[in-house]
Amino acid sequence: MACVHDHSCEDHDCSSDFSLYKHIDIPRVSALNEATTGSVKSVFKSWEQRLNSSGGHLESNDGDPELLVFIPFTSDVKIKSISVVGGADGTSPAKMRAFINRDGIDFSDAQSMQPVQEWDLAENLEGLLEYQTRYSKFQGVGNLTLHFPENFGADTTQIQYIGLKGEATQLKRDVVATIVYEVTPNPSDHKTRADGGGGLSHVE
Amino acid sequence: MVLEATMICIDNSEYTRNGDYSPNRFQAQADAVNLICGAKTQSNPENTVGVLTMAGKGVRVLVTPTSDLGKILACMHGLDVGGEMNLAAGIQVAQLALKHRQNKKQQQRIIVFAGSPVNYDKKVLEAIGKKLKKNSVALDVVNFGEEDDGKPEKLEALVASVNNSDSSHIVHVPPSAGALSDVLISTPIFTGDGEGGSGFAAAAAAAAASGVSGFDFGVDPNLEPELALALRVSMEEERARQEAAAKRAAEEASRQGGEQSSNSQDATMTENVSVGALVDENKRNDQTDNETALLEQALAMSMDDPRSSQSGGISMLDADMSDATMEDQDLALALQMSVQDTAADPTSQTEMSEVLGDRSFMSDIISSLPGVDANDPSVRDLLASLRQGEKKNDDKPSDEEK
């Protein structure tokens, strides 16, 4: 179910709503069937930047419009709605299926499993459409996997922006720590999370 | 240090009984598999490796991805050779095994040893490759054994369709290349896209029984640095000599109106041209005018009375070099230059002194010689005197002793 903004965005600051991007663990974001490895990270930015494609966009391989995007969060979040900006000329995705808290889904899993929710998308080049979630099912989300099985007829699927609206808790679902074997300490293994997510965001 | 889960697909078909790789293709494969497993687990302790066979009664997974090296080595024992390889099924089963890996954070990789002919169409292989690429699985192929026509192209097409920013590789190993594992050590399959595997590869080569061909000159630089250095020096000089010869050939091509004058002086001319070339190498710079000057000197020497001390000194350098192959072009060029200018060139002397004056070069040569201590005062005195008065003939014979 889509809802269109029926107010002009100047008096109501939409950007603060779509601030769950701050809680996304960007280095661990991955996608399957992307043409350029790592291009998926450019898709998560602030709402004001949603139409700014200077950082690149996510594109699927030639001849294959399926995309699978894996989004881990730095803490558990509750997702209220999702906004997707696609590309022009039929490269926008037509359907979206969401899976929650599942690691390592690949295409055969995604096609056979029942998603938590799925939507039919419209071409949304301005980024004004949002798709509501069944909020009760999207509580305590540690990671989100979005599967885009089809597009509007082009050879590839392009995604410029994915925005998530909701609330972040400070809890972490996944308690197993990453094990690092060290004979001598390697500073690059011990990056501090100085720019990670922090603080609550709230929804009007 | 990439975190990776690898499935190795072994070919145990009848074609691997062949002995064109020593001791037979299957054993060579097994050695290579052992080395790869070691390399993977050493580069990152959390890496896992699994093994499956593609021939025999059917595709069979011997061990699912595990980081336990002992299990992997154990399963390689007692394998039967027989049947025909099923490449497509093997890759698909490998993909399935990787899909169910325990640690989903690991990257997926399949390594295929293709020893028998490939019966599949290029299209089928490309479709398989696309599916692997879509699920971001990397593929490495080792093409050895049967040289079927079309097999290298098919495998290249397969790897090209999987390849995503250089993560997949293909290696062709002909039977003449020696041991399969030794050839693989230097490939990106082992070195893992240029990361930490090369350290392991060097250690493995040193530890392995053959331990020889892992290095450029068959010598471990850690064990025998002087020998490795001497070999490297002579290799560079040989290369410089060949460049000089190529340049001369190019010059000669532009002066094709060469004289076909008397061949009576052939022998001496040849020898002195070769000597001139060797002296070139010693200087390690390819300036054409220097070469010309040296050639002139060499020719002049053959024309005039051969000064034994000079040639003695040069023959010392001669001994260091490998055999010089002479070409007619060099000879014609030498003849031409002798016709043009036969005056003995005083610059030739300075060339020699330049050579001997090149301290780093000299110290390299001297340190490479067994039984000579570069810090020995007598050696140092000798070097100093050489640099000062290069015309002293009595220095040369003593230099010759070295």
Automatic annotation (TrEMBL), chain A:
Q: Which PROSITE patterns does the record associate with it?
A: PITH (PS51532)
Q: Which domain of life is it from?
A: Eukaryota
Q: Which GO cellular component terms, listed alphabetically, does the Swiss-Prot or TrEMBL entry include?
A: cytoplasm
Looking at the record, the residues that make up the PITH domain are 9-184
> One Pfam family name from the record?
PITH
- Give the family from UniProt: Belongs to the PITHD1 family.
Q: What is this protein called?
A: Pith domain-containing protein
UniProt source species: Thalictrum thalictroides (Rue-anemone)
From TrEMBL, chain B:
The GO annotation for biological process reads: proteasome-mediated ubiquitin-dependent protein catabolic process
Compositional bias ranges of the Polar residues kind = 257-270
Q: Which residues form the VWFA domain?
A: 5-189
Keyword Cell cycle applies: no
Alphabetical UniProt keywords: Proteasome, Repeat
The record ties this protein, via SUPFAM superfamilies, to:
vWA-like
The UniProt entry, under CDD domains, shows:
PSMD4_RAZUL (cd22297), VWA_26S_proteasome_subunit (cd01452)
Q: Where is the composition biased (Basic and acidic residues)?
A: 242-254
Give the GO molecular function terms: polyubiquitin modification-dependent protein binding
Pfam families for the chain: UIM, VWA_2
Provide the residue span(s) of the region labelled Disordered.
242-270, 367-402
Which InterPro entries does the annotation name?
PSMD4 (IPR027040), PSMD4_RAZUL-like (IPR049590), UIM_dom (IPR003903), VWF_A (IPR002035), vWFA_dom_sf (IPR036465)
Gene Ontology CC annotations of this record: cytosol; nucleus; proteasome regulatory particle, base subcomplex
- Name the protein family: Belongs to the proteasome subunit S5A family.
Q: What is this protein called?
A: 26S proteasome non-ATPase regulatory subunit 4 homolog
Q: Which organism is it from?
A: Thalictrum thalictroides (Rue-anemone)
